[in-house]
């Protein structure tokens, strides 16, 4: 069975964790959620971004997701793929040394790594993306 690791933190965009993780599980993948700020069995809370009358999205509290593995003790090299969802969580994840270690491993080993939205910041923090084509929010171009 293929194993997929998802790195998350509080304020992850709900639609970028809920649908992908449930779809992967339905397709028969083993999916683990890890977070640098929560231990196995802990929970993070997502955000749901709703359009508002103003010219920005109004973040509201979303759902709780259980952390299934401890980021400090997992054998991340045993995973077949890494997924980095977006929302505001990458603003916290991209400064965590353990997160950078894991992401850098996936980049350098050429294993499948999927990144969306703000999580391009986490890729940039590895300093291992030179020469690679990335997509992300417009302001992340300056960082990457």
TrEMBL record:
InterPro entries listed in its UniProt record: C56_PfpI-like, Class_I_gatase-like, DJ-1/PfpI
One Pfam family matching this protein: DJ-1_PfpI
Gene Ontology molecular-function annotations: transferase activity
SUPFAM superfamilies: Class I glutamine amidotransferase-like
Protein keywords: Glutamine amidotransferase, Transferase
Transferase found in the keyword field: yes
Top-level taxonomic group: Eukaryota
Domain DJ-1/PfpI: 2-139
Assigned protein family: Belongs to the peptidase C56 family.
Protein name: Class I glutamine amidotransferase-like protein
């Amino acid at each position: 069975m293929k194993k997929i690791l998802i790195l998350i933190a509080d304020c992850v965009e709900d639609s970028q964790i809920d649908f992908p993780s449930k779809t992967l599980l339905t397709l028969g993948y083993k999916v683990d959620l890890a977070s640098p700020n929560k231990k196995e069995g802990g929970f993070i809370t997502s955000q749901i971004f709703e359009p508002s009358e103003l010219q920005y999205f109004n973040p509201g509290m979303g759902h709780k997701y259980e952390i299934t593995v401890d980021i400090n003790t997992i054998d991340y090299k045993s995973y077949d793929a890494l997924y980095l969802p977006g929302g505001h969580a990458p603003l916290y994840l991209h400064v965590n040394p353990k997160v950078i270690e894991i992401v850098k491993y996936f980049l350098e080993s050429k294993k499948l790594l999927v990144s969306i939205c703000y999580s391009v910041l986490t890729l940039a923090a590895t300093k291992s993306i030179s020469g690679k084509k990335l997509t992300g929010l417009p302001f992340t171009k300056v960082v990457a």
